[in-house]
Amino acid sequence: MASEKKLPSAATMAAINFASGGFAGFVEVCIMHPVDLVKTRYQVYPDTNASIVTCFRDMYRAEGFLSYYKGILPPLLAETPKRAVKFFTFEEYKRLFKALPISSALVYSGAGFMSGFTEAFVINPFERVKVLLQSQKQQYALQDSTWSTVRKIVRTDGLGLRGLNLGLTATIGRHAVFNCFYFGIYFTGLEATQASALPGRLDIARKFLIGFSAGTLASCINIPFDVAKSRIQGPQGKTKYRACFQTIGLVYREEGWRALYRGLIPKIIRLGPGGAIMLLVFEYTSAYLTSRIM
């Protein structure tokens, strides 16, 4: 009789989820970073009204091709721990929420919310540096380096909520709300369509479509927090934007409700397909690593 395969231990599965999440995030950033940069420009500079294509063209003419990758080092450095934390904590919170007498949709949404809350503490310092670098409009070779930007922030304002961790509450709001709907929609959608067993490529298409929908809807819901984060963490002459809800209220009063959705189109272009790519890479990487150790 063939010996039964031994299931991986809880610690091994945690390590697999951590590694798979990190790799998924790395792949997503490498593909989608230029769109994220345009989104940040829309949110930091309220007078930017050009189309996405025009923004890309003007950046290329004024700042060169490498301008599309301004600020990529902080997210690349952060992406492995960030996405690893996202997926690892989601799985752990999901296990805790499953012990409660609630529906599976609430399990996924609650675990997503808490994973985003946790993830924000890891990513916020990197986001602070990334936004400042993406806001600079000079040639790539002339702008501040990542490390000089970090040193300047720490030297001037320190490591706390006025320095490297400026905008933490907005980052918490952005990630907690996004993950709540992202994971909730994705896994509820998978359960709802699971009965229709599809062959290989069609099943990948099904998962991609659900992931795309999850990333798109979550982006539409959480973008006011994203705008607030960009305003707080971006360059300010006289400090105007200080806290998450203070910034949302101020933008609404001065610029109207539409300003709270600035950058929505590039955000959707990034996190619609980006969200689908990330979930698929995570799932298949996790399945591959699990199969290798069994």
TrEMBL record:
It holds the Pfam family Mito_carr. Gene3D superfamilies: Mitochondrial carrier domain. Coiled coil: none annotated. It is found in: Mitochondrion inner membrane. Keywords: Membrane, Mitochondrion, Mitochondrion inner membrane, Repeat, Transmembrane, Transmembrane helix, Transport. One of its GO terms (cellular component) is mitochondrial inner membrane. It is a multi-pass membrane protein. It catalyses: L-2-aminoadipate(in) + 2-oxoglutarate(out) = L-2-aminoadipate(out) + 2-oxoglutarate(in); glutarate(in) + 2-oxoglutarate(out) = glutarate(out) + 2-oxoglutarate(in); 2-oxoadipate(in) + 2-oxoglutarate(out) = 2-oxoadipate(out) + 2-oxoglutarate(in); citrate(in) + 2-oxoglutarate(out) = citrate(out) + 2-oxoglutarate(in). Its main location: mitochondrion. Transmembrane segments: none annotated. InterPro entries: MCP_dom_sf (IPR023395), MCP_transmembrane (IPR018108), Mito_2-oxodicarb_carrier (IPR051752). Transports dicarboxylates across the inner membranes of mitochondria by a counter-exchange mechanism. Can transport 2-oxoadipate (2-oxohexanedioate), 2-oxoglutarate, adipate (hexanedioate), glutarate, and to a lesser extent, pimelate (heptanedioate), 2-oxopimelate (2-oxoheptanedioate), 2-aminoadipate (2-aminohexanedioate), oxaloacetate, and citrate. Belongs to the mitochondrial carrier (TC 2.A.29) family. This is Mitochondrial 2-oxodicarboxylate carrier.
